[in-house]
């Protein structure tokens, strides 16, 4: 801009103009450059936001894919757990259908009524087993809310143990020790995925025979979930690589190498820690979650 003054002669008549100003050409150029830079930054920010959304979606899909892969390992065992009680329920119903006419004709047949009572009691036990398996599946596979919700860690771990026990084999024993722990704000489905990965790894480490411990405890400020096995253990070099994407100790392509990496990420998003200790014949994993 410019500042101007009128020049007057001795008579007071205007005889000229003085103009004092500053060349704003460079300032205008700088302003244009700043505006262009701002537009570029806004465009870059939008690209980053889109990339973040795509990454988050891919991460969610990866977690879900790993969950489905883990569930796939359980399908045969869970089907067997359901088919076994279902089989003797069906057999008992066939037995009852066969005996019913005879019982109607001879209601005082004590031996017949005793057999019927046993069949009914056995069928009730079978139905209860099936119901327990279905409840475990519902607890494990329930979809997570967008926000954190209060959940019972003991319930989630117990339901996961129930399913893993179906595929652990007769020579792998899973012991459960549940302490008094407060409810924790979390995504329950994600934590169940962590428990499943750790339990399957523990069972696998036992190589067909051994003991697995699933334990919970709390000191009031945090909850510690411990998975311990009496399997082959790991050396220092293997222990140092745990959690690396695509690194797996499962032979013959039995694992994707993503289970522990995803588990570590899930626990970290919950503000917790995943700790490993191992030596020949013993491995301990601790999931520490803030209350």
From TrEMBL:
UniProt xrefs under SUPFAM superfamilies: ATPase domain of HSP90 chaperone/DNA topoisomerase II/histidine kinase, Homodimeric domain of signal transducing histidine kinase
SMART domains: HATPase_c, HisKA
Keywords: ATP-binding, Coiled coil, Kinase, Nucleotide-binding, Phosphoprotein, Transferase, Two-component regulatory system
InterPro entries for the chain: HATPase_C_sf, HATPase_dom, His_kinase_dom, HisK_dim/P_dom, HisK_dim/P_sf, Sig_transdc_His_kin-like_C
One Pfam family of this chain: HATPase_c
Catalytic activity: ATP + protein L-histidine = ADP + protein N-phospho-L-histidine
The keyword Nucleotide-binding is assigned to this record: yes
Coiled coil: 27-68
Source organism, top-level taxon: Bacteria
GO molecular function terms attached to this record: ATP binding; phosphorelay sensor kinase activity
Residue stretches making up the Histidine kinase domain: 77-291
EC assignment: 2.7.13.3
Protein name: histidine kinase
Taxonomic classification: Bacteria, Bacillati, Chloroflexota, Chloroflexia, Chloroflexales
